[in-house]
Amino acid sequence: MKTGTFERGTHPPDSKEFTAAKPLVTAKVPKRVIIPLSQHIGAPCQSKVQVGDTVKKGQVVGQADAFVSAPVHATVSGKVVAIMPYPHTLGRDVPSVVIENDEKEEWVDGLTENPDYLSLDAEAMKASVRQAGIVGMGGATFPTHVKLSPPKEKKIECVILNGAECEPYLTADHRMMIEEADEVVAGLKVLMKIVGVDRGYIGIEENKPDSIKSMEEACRNEPSIEVYSLHTKYPQGAEKMLIKAIVGREVPAGGLPMDVGVVVQNIGTAVAIYEAVRYGRPLVERVVSVTGRGISEPKNLRVRIGTPLSSLIEECGGFKYDSGKVIAGGPMMGMAQSNLDAAVIKGTSGVLVLSPEESETPPHGPCIRCGRCIDVCPMGLQPAMLSVLAEAGMYEDMKEYDLMNCFECGTCAYVCPSKRPIVQWVKLAKMNLAQKK
Amino acid sequence: MSEAAQHQLIVSVSPHIKSEETVSQIMWTVSAALLPAFLASAYFFGPRGLIVQLVTIASCLAFEAFSQKVVNKPVTLSDGSAFLTGLLLAFNLPANIPLYVPIVGSFVAISITKHLFGGLGYNIFNPALVGRAFVLISWPRQMTTWMAPVSSFTSVDVVSQATPLNVAKLDGMAKLLEQFDGSKIQLYKSLLMGQISGSLGETSALLILIGGLFLLFKKYITWHVPVPFIATVVIVALVTGNDPVFHLLAGGLMLGAFFMATDYVTGPATRRGQIVFGVMCGLLTMLIRLKGGYPEGVMFAILIMNCFAPLLDRRLRTTTFGAVKKKEAST
Ligand code: SF4
Ligand code: SF4
Fold first, then answer.
1. Residues carrying CATH 3.40.50.11540, chain A
2. Which end of chain B is more exposed for a tag (fewer CB within 10 A), N or C?
3. Which DSSP helix (H) or strand (E) runs through B278?
4. N-terminal to C-terminal alpha carbon distance within chain A
């Protein structure tokens, strides 16, 4: 087996021990689900239902005409009780369809299995993916069918499945690669067919030897798929770093993976794609790691999209302490939540609960120019300069230092001995510059 | 649900975990790396050396607290940076210096060089070196009257003695070698072990080197400054027909290359900048040693290069991921 990695990066404790060995279990389906009309990058959906309507599981409740968008579906059968702005894991309130569960679990009509799905043509497969509302489930939430539709001049040569799961704590992909290895491979084969390539890779960090073994076994009879072991190093799972590690190419600054002939998809996304193409099933559930020192019983849960975070906390035995951070996603790039009514969306890979001590923000000091941030920035930026300029409010000058190439991975802020909130400043600067335009 | 409602949520921007390393940890570790040289200077120069050390460190701490109090900033003695400045300044002083000199030097280092520029992180010049430069210019005689080490085997003159660099500069290498029974090996050995006259920290190249290697091992510094610095000194010595081993071991090169030029705040933060910084420090050191008015050039070389550190960081940028390919694509 081949191994690879990217330049720079850092090694936070992986903290996977809370859930790494815990098999996937299906979470209780809540009495109410909240389906935000925007769970993806791109145009928000328009509601296609009205308050009082009866809906079935898998029925489209929101859709947009724009190509860069993804429909949202009812994830339970029941009645629409409200369409209103609702707290969202990514910040501001978002118009959402609230459905009361009738517990009949009735699927929408017309979902038919196609056992011979691999012989479908690429366009039909892609249409299924689009109809199923699939988006990047690692957290990026970019509509998958768009990623699978490169312009003609971009020749795609391979598909990479991202099993790096480099965010500490999270084990959703880890468990799926063990328990649903065949589905993962099937999803990858569908992906390869859609973009018309005969080269597929699955990249997995070395800290998951059981996943590597399981995927190797599942790929035994797949000569066109290769399992790659990756150094355990953050942010190994960032698209550009993953591509560098496996095919050795650098995505041009400001460019996309397709510019170097690569399509990258997440493990969970691959399984969703398989289910969409084979069974016609829309994306109604996903795997979420509920983990951390602040939760009583950490678990890997198979969760209905739209389940409020508070239900997951309850499902895992409740909080251990009476304060702390609740993060949607991992500790490096996840978003701290201010309201647990917010629901799991397509991109929620984990719910991390930190203890009160872990939740404290250490006071930050001046930049001592130690250069540690520069040594680790996977994008080769100078975060020290960005931080100093941001602190002085010199946002325009930050562009000179390639501010726009920073993808807010947090590696710099993690290593800074002066605990400088570099990512916070970068976000602020980007917002300021966007407003000025 | 009720339990969840009572839970107090803390919100902040990612990343939500931070490494354990802190600024004070770095400063104290660098100070610890100087411990062998500190003990050696106490051994070679006796109680007098120790007194100079303690007075300098105490003054630096006092001026740090004073300067921070004046502008109503929190007093941060525990971060170790003032302690380290004191230690480094003392290493640059002769053991028999009148004690008001280190006190004035500490004031210049801490209150003027550091705090007048905004405190830790904002100063352009290395505080310890400015302190040293100031007292050297103000009290040239006291600053160049070196006490020979108490335990020196090479000289009976225990009161005062010129440094090897000084002798070499004024009277030539031959004269210097006379002090060592004409044996180069004896000279090198003395330089390495610290049995020569000089400032408190200049004496034992070996112990400074051990401290420097410790910092390299701990990854608190990297090779990018010290190696180019030292290599340049050796190469210039070779090219100009001077004794490279002598220039390597004499004076403050080891201390300067491993502990002063590597100061984060006053050097470049980019690796490319650091290499150029190191090479330039080496060139300037040899220029001063061979052609300048002072026998030793390490201090002024680093101070001059301190001015250029911000410029080096701006000019010698890191390469953004994917930047090269982008250029290729557009041409
Ligand atoms: S790691 Fe922090 S202190 Fe060091 S150079 Fe970067 S921003 Fe400055
Ligand atoms: S957050 Fe931005 S600047 Fe910091 S390491 Fe990541 S890409 Fe580099």
1. 3-20+151-279
2. C
3. helix B271-291
4. 49
Distance of CA A264 to the CA centre of its chain: 12
d(CA A216, CA A231): 17
CA pair distance B232, B252, nearest whole angstrom:
15
Q: Please tell me the pTM assigned to this model.
A: 0.90
What is the number of helices (H) and of strands (E) in chain B? 17, 1
**Percent of chain B surpassing pLDDT 90:** 49
CATH topology of domain A3-20+151-279: Rossmann fold (3.40.50)
- Tokens read off for B91: 């290493």
Beta-bridge partners for A158: A262
Antiparallel, parallel or unpaired: β A72-73 and A60-63:
antiparallel
Nearest residue (CA) to ligand 1, atom 8: A367
Domain ranges of chain B: 22-161+197-218, 221-331
- What would the DSSP string read from start to end of A182-229? HHHHHHHHHHHHHHT-S-EEEEEETT-HHHHHHHHHHTTT-TTEEEEE
Name the residue of A375, A418, A422, A425 whose CB sits within 8 Å of the most ligand 1 atoms, as the mutation to test its pocket. Answer: A418
Reply yes or no on whether the pLDDT at B4 is more than 70: no
Total residue length of chain B: 331
B200: which 2 tokens?
């408190």
Question: Which residue of A334, A372, A382 is in closest CB contact with B14?
Answer: A334
Predicted ipTM > 0.90: no
Which are the contacts of A254, defined by CB distance < 8 A and separation ≥ 6?
A: A404, A405, B322, B326
DSSP string covering A296-343: SS-EEEEEETT-BHHHHHHHTT-BSSSEE-EEES-TTT-EE-S-TT-B
Residue A15's nearest CA partner among A227, A165, A169, A191 is A169
Take residue A282 and report the two structure tokens written for it.
């829309």
* Tens digits of residue pLDDT in A64-113: 999 999 999 999 999 999 999 999 999 889 999 999 999 999 999 888 88
Question: In Å, how far are B15, B183, B252 from B178, measured between CA atoms?
Answer: 64, 8, 22
Mutate to test the pocket of ligand 1, among A414, A419, A420, A423 (most ligand atoms within 8 A of CB): A420
CB A259 within 8 A of CB A154: yes
Lowest mean pLDDT among A24-33, A340-349, B144-153, B294-303: B144-153
Does B275 contact A at CB distance below 8 Å?
A: no
Q: What is the mean pLDDT of residues B240-251?
A: 86
Pairing verdict, β A200-205 and B8-9: unpaired
% of chain B with per-residue pLDDT over 70: 89
Place of tokens 């009645």: A79
Q: Are B10 and A316 in contact (CB under 8 A)?
A: no
Report which DSSP code applies to A2: E
Question: Which ligand 1 atom is the nearest neighbour of the CA of A422?
Answer: 7
Question: Average pLDDT in the B18-41 region?
Answer: 91
CA gap B16, A219 in Å, rounded:
36
Six-digit token string for A178 = 């063990």
Distances in Å between the Cα of A384 and the Cα atoms of A371, A377, B278 are: 7, 10, 21
Q: How far apart are CA A203 and CA A199, in angstroms?
A: 13
Confidence of residue B195 (pLDDT cuts 50, 70, 90): low
